[in-house]
Structures are given as C-alpha cells and as structure tokens.
Sequence to fold (166 residues):
Amino acid sequence: MIILGIDPGYAIIGYGVLEYSNNHFKVLGYGAITTKAGTPFNKRLEIIYRELDLIMTHYKPDVMAIEKLFYNTNAKTVIDVAQARGVIVLTAQLHGLEIAEYTPLQVKQSVVGYGRAEKKQVQEMMRIMLKFDEIPKPDDTADALAMAICHAHTSGSLVGKLKKYY
Fold:
C-alpha cells in the first residue's frame, strides 16, 4: 500500500509518501508545497492543487491520510486552512484515492505511544522509524510522514476495519 500523508495548511503543506508492506516502511518521497505570503489567496490555492496533482500523479498513492481540522483561537486562519484542505481533499478525490482523517492525538498515540506527546517527540520518532540521519524538515514534513505511519498502523488494526462500517 502506498500512503500519502498530508499536513494541511496554505503557506506550507507537508507531504510524505510511504510504501507500507509486511509491517515495513519504505520512504518514497517527502517535502513541502509552499506558497508565498502576499500571493493572492486564490492563486495560493491553485498552486496547492497543481503541486499536489503532480505529487499524486508521480507516486500514485492508494490512500491519502490527512489531519482533521481543529479550531484554535484564530478564526481567519482556520477558515483559510479549511479552504486549502478542501482543495487537498478534492485533489485526492479526483485521483480516486481513499481519504482517511486523523486527529493530532491519534497520530501521536500511533507513532509515539502517547497522545499528548510533544512535537519534538513525534519528529524524533520519524527520524528513528524511517532511519533518517536527521529529523525531516520542515516540521510539516515530519508531521505528514507521521500521518502516513498512523494510517498504516490504524488501517491494519481491527479498529481501522471497523471504521469503514460506522
């Protein structure tokens, strides 16, 4: 199974592509789609779509795992991220991908074993689990790889199978 993990945003969208087979991970690619501040927002959404379309066309993932959106204190930011997330989800839909959503708590629990783990702990686990010399940068990339690992761990579990029926 090829999993595309996404850490959604509109300035930086982290992505990580993993092949998961027999409880082993092979890193196929990772990085970030970036859009510059000051660029008209509609153009930023277009850039996200075009770059993600290229990534999906190149890696041909079976599934996209993406972070569920949660509201913090800045309503404008959450609305902008929601719009970018909509473009991301639509792009995956157009590519015929299964779409799985996970909360930050689920991802931390899956990769660190503790749902309240610190961001640095998640990043260090990505370095260890994927045998990197250094923590993947930017941080959004490590988060996207963690999202993909979370899906791999969840999709093979009984809980992951039950989610399909509810």
User: Anything to note?
Assistant: Residues 101 and 149 are 12 Å apart (CA to CA). Helices lie at 41-59, 75-94, 104-111, 119-129, 139-155, 158-163. The chain is about 50% helix and 20% strand.
